[in-house]
Amino acid sequence: MFFLLAIIQGLCEFLPVSSSAHLWLLPWLLKSPYQGLAIDVVFHFATLIAVILYFRKEILLILLRFWQKPFPLYKTELGLLVLATLPAGLIGLFFQNKIENLLRSPFLIAFNSAFFALVLLYAHKRLSSEKSLDFKKSLLIGIAQVLSLAPGVSRSGITYSAGRLLGLPALEAFRFSMLLSVPTILGASIVEAPRLIQEGEMRATLFPFLLAFLVGLLAIALFQRLIKSKRGILLLSLYRFLLAAVIVLVALKR
Predict the structure, then answer these.
(1) What HEC string does the chain produce?
(2) What does the pLDDT look like over 95-135, one tens digit per residue?
């Protein structure tokens, strides 16, 4: 089970189809116990390493620019990434238990999958105004990321969509969305780390961790190619509609 979940996490963390929905969906369909947020974090940490490796040059450049000119903080890209991380980080920190217990309804996940597929498709089709990131846009993208705490929304999908709706070029919106995953996933991993400190648990997830890491690298490159293609985002949106339909049909039969 863990190996299959690792593949799903690696693919869905960066493709805009919601990793949390898929990590919830498989155990639900198979009527097996939910693996828990601790295991989710192991897989998320694997994808964190993947995105750091993929964007290593950009990350080093961001850190170098910050080192050379750290002030004003709100005009540095590192500062903008931290700013965009805060809304979802604070909401998740204080309302994690309620989110975990209340937002895993199959019908809500199905609705999120379908509705935000429409948002993704609409946002992607908007003409770019070649606007660059600033304090306001980063904060708005961060506020949009709060929605991804609900399974089915997709963190990469909603942050990419928000960037496009704010006028960012497609590849710039993709780049900021991927870079934003670094502090976001890192923060979530730190919060959940105490739940992972159990004898044998890390050994049991070592190979799934490596698998999620490798698949995550491929998923980032795939998302970038789909953005450049004419019908890539359309195909992803159609998949989200299909996912929503499957969830509803199975839920109605139970």
Answers:
(1) CHHHHHHHHHHHCCCCCCHHHHHHHHHHHHCCCCCCHHHHHHHHHHHHHHHHHHCHHHHHHHHHHHHHCCCCHHHCHHHHHHHHHHHHHHHHHHHHHHHHHHCCCHHHHHHHHHHHHHHHHHHHHCCCCCCCCCHHHHHHHHHHHHHHHCCCCCHHHHHHHHHHHCCCCHHHHHHHHHHHHHHHHHHHHHHHHHHHCCCCHHHHCHHHHHHHHHHHHHHHHHHHHHHHCCCHHHHHHHHHHHHHHHHHHHHHHC
(2) 876 776 788 889 999 999 999 999 999 999 987 776 789 99
